[in-house]
Amino acid sequence: MIDDDEDVLLAAKLLLKKHAHQVIIEKNPKKIPFLLNNDTYDVILLDMNFSKDITSGKEGFYWLSQILEKDPSAVVIMITAFGDVEMAVRALKEGATDFVLKPWQNEKLLATISTAIKLNKSYKEVDKLKKAKKQLEEDINQPFKDIIGHSRALKEVFNLIDKVARTDANVLILGENGTGKELVARAIHQRSLRKENSFISVDMGAITESLFESELFGHKKGSFTDAKEDRPGRFEIANGGTLFLDEIGNLSMPLQSKLLTVLQNRQVTRLGTNNPVAIDIRLICATNMPVQEMVADGSFRQDLLYRINTVEIKLPPLRDRIEDIPLLVDHFVEIYSKKYRKEIRSVNEDTIYKLQKYDWPGNIRELQHALERAIIMSDNTELEPEDFFFLTHNKSSSQDLKTDNLNLDEVERSVIERAINIHNGNISKAAKELGLTRASLYRRLEKHGL
């Protein structure tokens, strides 16, 4: 409540503190911007006149406009001792929720505030519904909005997700660390018939053998030393939804056997009980390990592999989808510029070129961390190649030219072909890579019939 009369403020606080969680009173209207910046309020009671001998309400209308500019959904009740119908109508037209005259009747003031609070809640509900509708529309228009890229390799992944999502087929996602395997698993779940139910993610590499059964199948109170209460396992929690087992290639053979038994019987038995519980889950697994080779050398059960890979999705490493790097860069620059309050507005072409030349052994996760670090360290509004001085392992060094032919013409032809292939036929970039001018490269292309 903002009013220049201290007696009025104290009287109002004594009345309202019995009915409200918190009542803030303020004599000086110039503190309104500060108050709005530091908190949100269900209802604001605002006097219309703060200067002696002024009855026009001009000050009140000014501060009403300031409040609504700051928060258009604010619920403001105007208060004056000199009210009339014309002023009341104007206050409502300019955005006030209601109008009260001093001296007020306590019951009437409480009723007015109660109605205003209900209105405030309805505003919030409408706002929540609008945001939900907007989010739903965005999800419909961008079904893979969390998976960023438009390369051919990624489009093939999108196609597989579309085909498999609405089935209950078990899926095995293969890919190097940092390629986004969990994002793909979540995309499958969000487009499945189980999307209204739980998506439960389990990092199999982080679960010790001693806790495997307790974590996945649950336990009964007293079944082991630290079992202080009954606890369902991840399979039970995911019942009706999707269970994502990440890094499944890390499981030992004994744990693979226990997992296979549950998948075959479609039921789990908590530790310390003899009562099996039926489960209905959609299983998605992921690994960065070569499971086919592991089957061949006997470190992964073939029958378990048959169970988990009804459909197999292979995620391309970032070095095989370099055309997606500019989109990923824009995405992470926006996130970390906001997080660290930096005015990074762009990434220049030379920087993108450097990032596309690097082979990204850590894939998207490494790119994300590299951009976060560069943004923290940069003092400019544009990221430069020098901001990524820590990237030392690049394509040209990791893909050394291998040839048994020492004929200089043949070696030159081979190097030129490779440079053009790396840059998808872009002559300017290929020439820059080779240390040539465009004209020099064109002469060599003509010389070698390329």
How would you characterize this protein structure?
With 450 residues, the protein is an alpha/beta fold. The chain has 19 helices and 14 strands. It has helices at 6-16, 32-38, 58-70, 85-93, 106-141, 152-165, 181-190, 212-217, 234-237, 253-265, 291-296, 302-308, 325-339, 349-357, 363-377, 395-398, 408-422, 427-434, 438-448, and strands at 44-47, 76-80, 98-101, 171-174, 199-203, 218-219, 231-232, 242-246, 267-269, 276-278, 282-287, 311-314, 346-347, 382-383. Strand 9 and strand 10 (276-278) form a beta hairpin. Helix 6 (152-165) packs across helix 7, helix 17 (408-422) crosses helix 18 and helix 18 crosses helix 19. The longest helix has 36 residues, at 106-141. The termini are far apart. 26% of the residues are buried. The model is unreliable at 394-399 (pLDDT under 50).
